Amino acid sequence: MYCKTILCAIFVLCVPVTMSSDRPHIVLIMVDDLGWNDVSFHGSDQIPTPNIDALAYNGIILNQHYSQPLCTPSRSALVTGTYPIRIGLNGKPLIAAQPASLPAIKIMPEYFKDLGYTTHLIGKWHLGYERWNSTPTYRGFDSFFGFYNGFTSYYDYLSTWKLNNKSHSGFDLRKGIDPAWEFVGQYATDVFTDHGVKLIEKHDPNEPLFMLMSHLAVHAGNDGKLLEAPQETINKFKHISDSNRRTYAAMVSKLDDSVGTIVETLDKKGMLQNSIIVFVSDNGAPTIGIFQNWGSNYPLRGIKGTLFEGGVRTVAFVWSPLLVQSQRVSNELIHITDWLPTLYSAAGGDISALDPNIDGLDQWSSLVYDLSSPRTDMLININDVERTAALRFHNWKLVLGTPIDPSFDDHIGDSGKEVLFAVGYNTSAVYQCRAARSIEKVSFSITAAEDYSILRDQATLKCADHRGKANPCDLSGGDVCLYDILRDPCEENNLSKYFPNVVRSMKRALVEYKSGAVPLVNQNSDIEKADPKLFQYTWNPWLDCADATCRA
Ligand SMILES: *[C@@H]1O[C@H](CO)[C@@H](O)[C@H](O)[C@H]1NC(C)=O
Ligand SMILES: *[C@@H]1O[C@H](CO)[C@@H](O)[C@H](O)[C@H]1NC(C)=O
Ligand SMILES: *[C@@H]1O[C@H](CO)[C@@H](O)[C@H](O)[C@H]1NC(C)=O
Questions:
Q1: For the whole prediction, is pTM greater than 0.85?
Q2: Is 428 in the pocket of ligand 2 (CB under 6 A)?
Q3: What is the pLDDT of residue 169?
Q4: How many Å apart are CA 309 and CA 381, to the nearest integer?
Q5: 168 counts as catalytic
Q6: From 542's CA, which of 9, 55, 106, 393 has a CA 20 to 30 Å away?
């Protein structure tokens, strides 16, 4: 009798999570090139992001979340759960017309389909399109609405590339496999949001939804109009003195509106109480150089493409009513490869079904119950072409190499503080925003407006304002630097002379990681065959076909 009762209890506890109708809806919002200091929950008043902040404060702010330093590597790590060195994607992002793509291994949407999910990709792919088989709807997404290359402009969806000394421009927006010309003239962030809203509205809430919302924002567009946003949104930022930064702020603000709209739609559809929302940036902001977007990684050092924290330590949080210990800031190590096993586990999947070679770790129970992270070390990247590498081990970070442009490794860019007049952080605006109103309905308790300041303070990094001068790391000699990231998040004090044993063991770990590396997939551009002119002025797969009428 006694046994029967226990079995019954176990049965009752277990059954709901294994029934497909009870699997949580997953909305993974990946943003592009967003700087550490471009969300207001990290301490800057300059660009208010009330919807993003409300979710972050009511979820878990992941303050030691690492991505890869560049777009393609980060996206490959996200969908495969594998360090990009193991699949040849640890180098430069894929350029247009490059006959290379993500290797044919099982990826995130395919795993979620196994669990009964409907899978959607909205926005950026950037994992190759040389053949139809490389494109999203052949890689596990039931639907795709977005672009293949690394960026487009925000209204015309053209992606322009200088290849073999000539400029090549092609249209890059598709619904499924068909060019979606009808959206020309509408703002990309709104267009992707509206599409997300329609998918949620059409979705049967009893079936699990997996949506990867992969924004173009806040990546810079084509030369000549790097930054674009609706004028009425730009006008909200009169307090920002730099006009480029003003436009950038508007782009971030549109992203914040998008988050509010998606949360509101999930609520209206009755899906929010069983949803997990993850928000991550693919890398830090490029504050100078190619695709400069006027973001701010302050107070972190380095920019997109570098292995310093400003390049790889990214804005991230997770929100869900399923998190038992939420409304907190986590300083546990978490890597972008961890989302595959973590979300698979959250969905009730058995992670032994995943490829045993993945590098990601299942962080779900650590997140839910505030346990320590299973991760004590991580490879940040190895790039043999640039001869750079970095890794974390507990509180330590080792950075090696000679970067392409040493000036990128400095503390550079806007501080997110310089304004014409102060605006102040409006906690009641956060408390009253659309995301907060929606999550209040499905949460046991919502973080009080007063507590926002406490969480915000915990999420704000504090560094002595040495700006790298204290004990600088000059990597140009091909040397190494060791930092204690917990005490020195701004990487100002190279400690390698004091901890030679740590340096030695981390170098050994690096050699071990390197033994798993494969050659880069990168190839020269195939622009003669892939020229958009041959494909009705679109970027189109070109190796199966010689013109735009060809289908997979
Ligand atoms: C591009 O132009 C440069 C300088 O004009 C020249 O040296 C180089 O060979 C050209 N490259 C190609 C691929 O045509
Ligand atoms: C703060 O936000 C609230 C709600 O949006 C608004 O009513 C109030 O005017 C704002 N306060 C300031 C000082 O801007
Ligand atoms: C870091 O410190 C070590 C030990 O003092 C020194 O040998 C090395 O040159 C420094 N690295 C850089 C790149 O400055």
A1: yes
A2: yes
A3: 97
A4: 12
A5: no
A6: 106
